[in-house]
Specification:
- It is a single chain.
- The chain is 40% helix and 16% strand.
- The chain is of the alpha/beta class and 152 residues long.
- It has one domain: Ribosomal Protein S5, domain 2 (2-Layer Sandwich), CATH 3.30.230.10.
- The relative contact order is 0.21.
């Protein structure tokens, strides 16, 4: 019985699946940018339908095998180039995952990567875990997901 529950859990809205492997991140980044803010970019790779027919491209088949089960997938990229301290990178990643959970219902079944594309000014945000930095990150992430959720 517990095996049956484990199989159904992703379908019950248990959360966003996290990207873990390099090929998953590369595939999602190749999908294209769907939203930007001054510090963040959201990339999306639309997942193919569950039935992969032989006439479909090999890229669709590769994406199908990378992202099982078909769900909302999310990864966070916070490079050292833009956030030097590990505590800052981890705080930003936590914010990304928390905010994305709020928008999970509005996000399509696709692979998403939120990428930090510019650093926050260290003179303005002295502490890596300051309330000001957390508020600024939260505000931009909400804008990022709002823009991505809007119909084109």
């Amino acid at each position: 019985m517990s095996t049956h529950l484990a199989v159904e859990q992703p379908q019950l809205g248990s959360g966003v699946q996290r990207l873990k492997t390099r090929p998953q991140f590369q595939a999602a980044l190749a999908g294209g940018t769907v939203s930007r803010t001054p510090h963040f970019a959201l990339h999306r790779l639309n997942l193919p339908e569950t039935s992969v027919n032989p006439a479909s491209s090999s890229a669709d088949g590769a994406a199908h095998s990378l992202f099982q089960p078909k769900a909302v997938w999310l990864g966070a990229m916070v490079p050292k180039r833009w956030a030097r301290r590990a505590v800052t990178r981890n705080a930003i990643k936590r914010q990304i995952y928390v905010i994305s959970a709020q928008y999970e219902v509005r996000m399509p079944c696709a692979a998403h990567v939120v990428r930090l594309r510019a650093g926050f000014d260290r003179t303005q945000f002295i502490s890596a875990t300051s309330t000001l930095l957390k508020q600024a990150v939260r505000l931009e992430l909400e804008q990022l997901f709002e823009r991505a959720a809007r119909p084109a």
